[in-house]
Amino acid sequence: EGRSIVFASGKGGTGKTTTVANLGVALAQFGKEVILLDADLTMANLSLVLGMEDIPVTLHDVLAREADLKDAIYEGPAGVKVIPGGLSLEKVKKAKPERLRELMREISQLADFILIDAPAGLEMTSVTALLIGKELIVVTNPEISAITDSLKTKLIAEKLGTLPLGVILNRVTNEKTELTQDEIEAILEVPVLAMIPEDPEVKRASAYGVPLVIKNPTSPAAIAIKQLAAKLAGIK
Ligand code: ADP
Ligand code: MG
Fold first, then answer.
1. Strand positions, DSSP E, 144-216
2. Counting atoms of ligand 1 from 1, which one is nearest the CA of 221?
3. Radius of gyration (Cα) for the chain, nearest Å?
4. 3-state SS, residue 56
C-alpha cells in the first residue's frame, strides 16, 4: 500500500494545487510511482495546472458510478498518474463524495505515493478529503490569518485519525510582517517541511500548462519543491 498524503489548508489559494502537481512530478522524476488525486470536487483544476487536455472520464464520473476507476487514471508529465476532477457543474451535482473513501482503498494499492489535492475550508468535501488520506501536509502562507485557519484544519484532521506530517510555507517573501518558522511551528505544533518562495515563474508555468519543475527546474520555487520531494522519497 502506498502513502496517501492530503494537502489541505484552511484558507483558499495558499498553493495546494501547485504544490501537489509539482511535488508529484518531482517524485516521479525520482523514480516513484505517483498518483495525484483531485479531491477538490467543486473547484477541480489540477489537470489544468498539469496542462492535461482531452479528459473524457473524470473522478466525478467514477463517484457517480458511471465509469470505472481505471478509465479515470491518466498519464501526466514525467509519468505521474493523475485522477482529474470534472470541470462542469453538472458533474459536480452527480458525484457522491462519500464514495471517495472506498475508492481510496483501491487507489492506494496502485502507487508508492497518492497525493490528494484537497479543497480549502472545512465544508463537507474538505472534511472528506482529510478523511481519505493517512497523512496530512498543511499548505499555508506565512500570515497569521492563514496560520490560524491552518490550525483548525490540522486539529480536525487529527480528530479524524489523519496524521499531520508538517506544514509547507508557500509564497514566502521574508518580509517583516511574515511569521517566522519558529513561530509557525509553535502555533501549529508540527515541523515546517519546506519553505517555497514567492516566485513569478509559478504563474508563468501554470499559464503554459507545464509544471514548474519541468518548465523551469532551477527557479527558486522549483528547487524548494524538489528538495521536499527528495526528503519524502527518502533520498536527501
Ligand atoms: P490552492 O490550490 O491552494 O487554491 P493554487 O495552487 O491554485 O492554490 O495557487 C493559487 C495561486 O497562487 C495561483 O495563481 C498560483 O499560480 C499562485 N502561486 C502558488 N504558489 C506560488 C508561489 N510560490 N509563487 C507565486 N505564485 C504562487
Ligand atoms: Mg486548488
1. 163-172, 192-197
2. 23
3. 16
4. coil
8-47 burial string, b = 16+ CB within 10 Å, else e? bbbbeebbbbbbbbbbbbbbbbbebebbbbbbbbeebbbb
* DSSP string covering 132-144: H-SEEEEEE-SSH
User: Cell 514566502 identifies what position?
Assistant: 172
Nearest CA to ligand 1 atom 26: 202
The reported pLDDT for the residue numbered 236 is 52
Helix (H, G, I), strand (E, B) or coil at 23: helix
CA of 40 to the centre of ligand 2 (A): 7
C-alpha torsion angle, residues 100, 168, 79, 30 (rounded to 10): -130
Q: Specify whether the CB–CB gap between 64 and 94 falls below 8 A.
A: yes
pLDDT tens for each residue of 7-32: 999 999 999 999 999 999 999 999 99
Angstrom distance (rounded) from CA 45 to CA 38: 8
- What would the mean pLDDT of 63-86 be, rounded to a whole number? 96
Per residue in 136-165, pLDDT (tens digit) is 999 999 999 999 999 999 999 999 999 999
Contact 168, 193 (CB under 8 A): yes
What would be the CATH architecture of the domain defined by 3-233? 3-Layer(aba) Sandwich (3.40)
* Cα–Cα dist 202/215, whole Å: 10
Distance 227 CA to ligand 2 centre (A): 22
Instruction: Assess whether pLDDT exceeds 60 at residue 192.
Output: yes
Its pTM stands at 0.97
Say how many C-beta atoms besides its own lie within 10 A of residue 181's C-beta. 15
